[in-house]
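Researcher: Let's try something more involved. This one mixes different molecule types, so please make sure each is placed in the same coordinate frame as the others.
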Amino acid sequence: MALDAQGKAEAPHTGTTIVAVTFDGGVVLGADGRVSTGTYISNRASNKIQQLTDSIYLLRSGSAADTQAIGDYARYFSEQLAAELGRAPNVSTVAKLVSTMNYQNKEMLMGAMIVAGYDEQKGGQVYGCPIGGSLVQEQWAVDGSGSTYIWAALDDGFKEGMTRAEAEQLVVDALSLAMARDASSGGIIRTVTLDKAGATVKYVPGNEVPTWFEDLPAPGTAMAVG
Amino acid sequence: MSGIGTGYDLSATTYSPDGKVFQTDYAQKAVDNSRVTSVGAQRSREAVEKLVVSKLLVERSSRRIHNIDRHAGICMAGLLPDGRMVVNRAADEATNYKSFYGEPIPGRVLCERLASYMHLFNLYWSMRPYGAAGLLATYDDDGPALYLVEPSGVAHGYFGTAVGKARQAVKNELEKMKLGQITCREAVVEAAKILHKVHEEDGKPFEIEISWVCDESGRVHQKVPAEVLAEAEAAAKAALEESDMED
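Model: All components are placed in one shared frame. Result:
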């Protein structure tokens, strides 16, 4: 167990890369799989994408416990609202719920999240809900420790009106770039694509994550165990 | 004094042998016998109403139609002070919803919350039901809507409806109209005509208050502009004279 400066055990941290990108007709969400407590990777294939409604998902980074709690609350509030409205809530409404929780409890929480989804009114949408409690709608968003390495990559790679395939490829490429440079991100890639038809969940195992440097072997092929 | 509900009508927590809660019925009577009539027509999304005044009253000083939020308005009928409390509650619901969810309260949700609220007062011995009914006009992402919330807590969506003393006469007129096919402005004129016609028999002075929430108003609930109202009242008076001459 890793210890921090006070000698207390460090809480699990989703040192993470999370990405969400809109395309023509929907939105693609992606995340790496690494959860670390200090230098120990406690989970190398975690799922940082949480479903809030049929077509709205939450990407989590920051404190694993805080973001799980917020995600659970957000899902509960969304269900209650759907019952009262008689229809699924809008993406903007759910994003507002998440950012409100961040804001009202900002002293205690450390959750940097992205809410992304599809609704009939506005199509695919991405909302950044960073630490502190602000809420900003964007065409694409990244967060987590690995995001620092890929802001420019997305600035360069994002085009308005991309196709679904282009957007999915962009998300996977960006994540793999971050995973190559950020020690706290890595492992596997999970993506969820949301459009009119529903949600498509995909999984990229560690040895199929794109590599960018010919001198690094793909993970999983270097060692044979047992 | 013995009446219909003798013995079973003293509190809202008592049923009569034939299954009625008389206090609720009496509250409804407070609305039905109110000397003013309120009309709502959905296609045009307007709540109209009629006031009986005394000579000493300042014109248009007592408002019957209230804004709940930019996109919603309510007209109360019956005991007006009771109505005021319901209006305040509606405004609170709208504000809280917007504060929590970040979007204007949908009409359907506001209607259901108001209905639950009014129903609450039919359940307890220590409170009496509101002697007021509300015509709720809203415009949200699902379009325009008109709801009537009654003292019992019953609420329905309507194409057109009326409450108050002359409600049956007004409803008869509304049924003749093709509410789905007229524009907002036409509906204002029609409503004014109906109110003037229905009030004609009384002979006492009165004034009209009309509001609308429609595309023409930018989906904002507001009093109809002065010139539209003037045009409507002029048309209403002209129609009355015409029908007088035909007699």
